[in-house]
């Protein structure tokens, strides 16, 4: 899906400039100063030559003029030094804003929905996303920074133009000709500039994507002996990238060289005409005036050349914005269907979908969000405290009702796959098991319920109130989820369990015991401070799953959602985990008893579990058997026995 509307590049750049306006102005001022300082030697040169020919009105000796010349040079060195600092800070702020907003938008998407760009059939691989964060962000950063250089150059070009006009108006008019030619050339080249840039970015994206996949699958590559084939593919992608990058860069260089030479030829012609004037003595052109004209002409022509390059750069930046916006709006083709029910009133609705921010246009990328970067003096602004799960009027869970829940994977890619017309009710403290054959839609059902995939039809009611945005609603302390393949970060075990949550060691210990991870932890020399390695690779599959379960338990959520714990746990460990967890539950116990005190509320979780294991099926209050994404049977174990394989 393409964005609903494209915002003009100038508007986007303005939003970015406005984000750090003071820094931008400081940087622009410094660079104007840096660029303007060379203008002073021009005046000194004029005075110097006029002094030599006795036409100067200044009463300065040649030595004083030379000293002034050197002082100007030194001042420029100092300004360049400071300007480098402001420029680096400004550049970093600009790309950080884009990267922050891109990441925030990606995190706002339904987490399990593949990223498929418009006009692409394959989802974007994780490694490919790097090229959006790196190349595209850098491209836009270059363009924003380019504006203050164009602006600085422009101011001096205008001043220089005025000086040139004061010397000779006729001659100065010739300067405008290259400007017209530059605008025409960039306009004509626009399509090609953009196409070459699009193709080269895509080729880079494929290379980073392949590298990402390679590193993710090193073991699989080794055991399959596929090293040569995988490297061949990398070579092939690199070769494709080389070809399109060369084309893109050669074209940009060619364009720059055409613009530069156009300006140079124009300058040459103007100088030839000026020399004629001087030789014929037709104009009141002194030798000093001629030196001045030559000197200031270069400011104007350099600006024209710079402007041409900037216009071409902006065309390439449009491609970067287009790519980033396509990524954040990727595959949003399935919008949640409208409910058949009349519009629910405020007190029957829980959490509104996020409609405040424009997520469908490039503006989302330049939204002014806080970044908490160190300032120019290296002072850290301090990070805001992390949001802690809040207990609100939605707690505790009495009843969760799901009606007509439907999600169909993109028909083009997978006809009739998904879940269809799913209904069920979870009562407080109950255990519901979803079972069914491989591929019957169990994981899809959990994901759609939790908002990790956008439902296309159906409603979810939490205590009789409609949940409008499951993705933001089904989070702790309302709900917690352990997927089939849990993700851990390369931090310590403690950091992985808490993920920013404030809990004391007693709560942590309790959660670890509940997850049957206590015996494993006792064998770890560094206990909770054990570094688990990237993706938790220093833990066994079973440890990883129990660590993820402990992460879920420590949040003491009302609804616990498990996707097949048995995939990495042996029968005994899993049975132990269930017996510990289920002993916490009091099915049917009214929450009103517990809700008297929110803080001391006894934890009586409601469980929704995908499993095949008889242990858990025996304990279930309700079993749902799925087949081809539909409910085939449901009830107690006795009711559904004949449907279980
Ligand atoms: N991203 C996707 N695009 C297209 N089809 C998909 C996608 N993910 C899953 N499917 C298909 O949807 C169906 C349901 O998949 P799902 O993972 O929900 O099944 P499951 O019952 O959880 O399977 P398992 O027991 O193996 O975990 C399967 O046929 C699967 O191939």
TrEMBL record:
Residues 333-346 have a biased composition (Low complexity). Residues 347-359 have a biased composition (Polar residues). It is found in: Cell membrane. It comes from the Bacteria. Coiled coil: none annotated. Residues 332-359 are annotated as: Disordered. Keywords: ATP-binding, Membrane, Nucleotide-binding, Transmembrane, Transmembrane helix. Gene3D superfamilies: ABC transporter type 1, transmembrane domain (1.20.1560.10), P-loop containing nucleotide triphosphate hydrolases (3.40.50.300). Residues 400-644 form the ABC transporter domain. It holds the Pfam family ABC_membrane. InterPro entries: AAA+_ATPase, ABC1_TM_dom, ABC1_TM_sf, ABC_transporter-like_ATP-bd, P-loop_NTPase, Type_1_exporter. Its main location: membrane. GO terms for cellular component: plasma membrane. This is ABC transporter ATP-binding protein.
């Amino acid at each position: 899906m393409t964005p609903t509307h494209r915002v003009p590049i100038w508007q986007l750049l303005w939003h970015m400039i406005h984000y750090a306006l003071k820094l931008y102005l400081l940087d622009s001022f410094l660079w104007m100063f840096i660029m303007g300082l060379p203008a002073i030697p021009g005046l000194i040169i004029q005075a110097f030559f006029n002094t030599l020919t006795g036409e100067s009105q200044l009463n300065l000796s040649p030595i004083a003029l030379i000293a002034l010349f050197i002082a100007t040079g030194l001042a420029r060195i100092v300004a360049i030094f400071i300007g480098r600092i402001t420029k680096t800070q400004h550049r970093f702020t600009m790309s950080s804003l884009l990267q922050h907003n891109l990441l925030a938008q990606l995190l706002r998407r339904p987490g399990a929905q593949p990223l498929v760009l418009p006009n692409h059939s394959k989802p974007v691989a994780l490694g490919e996303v790097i090229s959006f964060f790196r190349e595209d962000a850098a491209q836009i950063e270059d363009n924003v920074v380019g504006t203050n250089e164009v602006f600085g150059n422009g101011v001096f070009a205008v001043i220089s133009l005025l000086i040139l006009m004061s010397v000779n108006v006729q001659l100065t008019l010739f300067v405008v000709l290259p400007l017209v030619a530059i605008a025409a050339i960039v306009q004509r080249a626009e399509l090609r500039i953009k196409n070459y840039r699009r193709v080269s970015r895509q080729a880079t994206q494929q290379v980073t994507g392949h590298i990402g996949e390679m590193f993710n699958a090193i073991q699989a590559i080794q055991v399959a002996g596929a090293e040569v084939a995988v490297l061949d593919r990398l070579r092939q992608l690199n070769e494709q990238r080389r070809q399109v990058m060369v084309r893109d860069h050669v074209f940009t260089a060619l364009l720059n060289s055409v613009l530069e030479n156009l300006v140079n030829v124009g300058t040459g012609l103007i100088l030839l005409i000026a020399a004629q004037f001087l030789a014929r003595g037709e104009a009141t052109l002194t030798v000093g005036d001629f030196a001045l004209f030559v000197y200031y002409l270069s400011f104007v022509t350099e600006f024209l050349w710079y402007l041409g390059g900037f216009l071409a750069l902006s065309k390439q930046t449009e491609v970067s914005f287009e790519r980033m916006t396509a990524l954040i709006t990727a595959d949003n083709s399935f919008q949640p269907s409208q409910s058949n029910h009349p519009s629910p009133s405020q007190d029957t609705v829980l959490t509104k979908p996020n409609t405040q921010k424009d997520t469908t246009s490039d503006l989302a990328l330049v939204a002014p969000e806080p970044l908490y970067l160190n300032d120019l003096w290296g002072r850290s602004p301090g990070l805001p405290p992390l949001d802690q799960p809040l207990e609100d009027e939605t707690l505790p869970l009495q009843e969760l009702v799901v009606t007509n829940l439907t999600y169909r994977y993109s028909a083009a890619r997978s006809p009739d796959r998904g879940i269809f017309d799913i209904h069920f009710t979870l009562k407080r403290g109950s255990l519901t098991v979803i079972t069914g054959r491989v591929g019957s839609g169990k994981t899809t059902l959990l994901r759609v319920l939790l908002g990790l995939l956008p439902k296309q039809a159906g409603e979810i009611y939490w205590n009789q109130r409609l949940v409008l945005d499951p993705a933001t609603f089904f989070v702790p302390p309302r709900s917690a989820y352990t997927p089939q393949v849990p993700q851990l970060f390369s931090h310590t075990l403690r950091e992985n369990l808490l993920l920013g949550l404030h809990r004391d060691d007693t709560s942590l210990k309790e959660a670890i015991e509940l997850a049957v991870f206590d015996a494993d932890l006792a064998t770890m020399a560094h206990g909770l401070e054990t570094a688990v390695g990237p993706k938790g690779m220093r833990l066994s599959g079973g440890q990883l799953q129990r660590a993820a379960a402990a992460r879920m338990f420590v949040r003491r959520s009302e609804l616990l959602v498990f996707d097949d714990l048995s995939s990495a746990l042996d029968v005994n460990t899993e049975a132990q985990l269930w017996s510990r967890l289920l002993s916490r539950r009091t099915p049917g116990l009214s929450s009103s008893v517990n809700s008297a005190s929110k803080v001391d509320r006894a934890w009586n979780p409601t469980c929704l579990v995908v499993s095949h294991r008889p242990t858990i099926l025996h304990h279930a209050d309700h079993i749902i058997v799925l087949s081809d994404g539909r409910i085939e049977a449901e009830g107690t174990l006795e009711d559904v026995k004949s449907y279980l394989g």
